[in-house]
Amino acid sequence: MLDAIKGFEGYSAAPAWDYKQSSSGYGTKAQPGDENIPPDQLKAVHEQRFLEETSKAAASVDAFNPNLPPGVRAALTSLTYNAGPGWQQSGLGQAIKAGDYDKAREIFLQYNKAGGEVNPGLVARRQKEAAWFAGQPQSAQAAPAAPASGPLAQAPAPAPGKSAPSIPGGLLQPPIFPQQAPQQAAQADPGFFAQIPAEQAMQAPQIHFAQRRPVNLTGLRNALQQRAPIFAKV
Using an 8 Å Cβ cutoff, are 8 and 137 in contact? Predict the structure, then answer.
């Protein structure tokens, strides 16, 4: 929401008349002495004022109705920041109090005038803000998580009261290696071998182990007895 408001307002380091006041930064009221602030510090000052004013706007909306949907709250916060809280004593405020958000959205779009005339910039801004009534501001939405795939997507959750096994990646079931028949592997876990051609799976290298040999304990015992002691006896 904050990024969206910044986009609506734009940024101006120098103060300029804004119908009702002399504004600078992101549409906040210019203060005496701003011209004495070094340029490399001025934007930080404007940023702080922006955060203070948006916080006041949000607090005003929450005080009017603390149970608004996130998108409605964001739209009204942006409107309050831009035009003040006068809407709370008008038909828009009544519709919000009644929970009639469809009617509120229609009235909301009428706040598009500056200096008594319809302002094209405000028309576009109100349309974008009114779209938030159906959800959240675009800039405030979290990016959807990428769908999981492969064996991790199919790993079962641990039983209630038990912690998951400490296996890297959270894989709870051991994978089926390509030495098995490709058809069996695909049936057991299609996501794991979906990209492995059947011919390649059949040609996977085999693992060979050396033949186990019996240990000559007698010879080992004799060899140890012939070694000099590591530590001297006390």
Answer: no
d(CA 213, CA 234): 40
| Confidence at residue 118, expressed as pLDDT on a 0 to 100 scale | 95
Spatial contact of 120 and 58, defined as CB atoms under 8 Å apart: no
Q: List the domain range (segments joined by +) for residue 187.
A: 180-209
In this structure, is residue 41 part of a structural domain? yes
d(CA 178, CA 198): 9
Identify the three-state secondary structure at position 12: strand
DSSP state of 118: E
Is 221 part of a structural domain of the chain? no
Enter the tokens of residue 74. Answer: 């964001």
Same domain, yes or no: 112 and 9: yes
What is the C-alpha separation between 70 and 142, in angstroms, rounded?
13
Give mean pLDDT, residues 124-148: 68
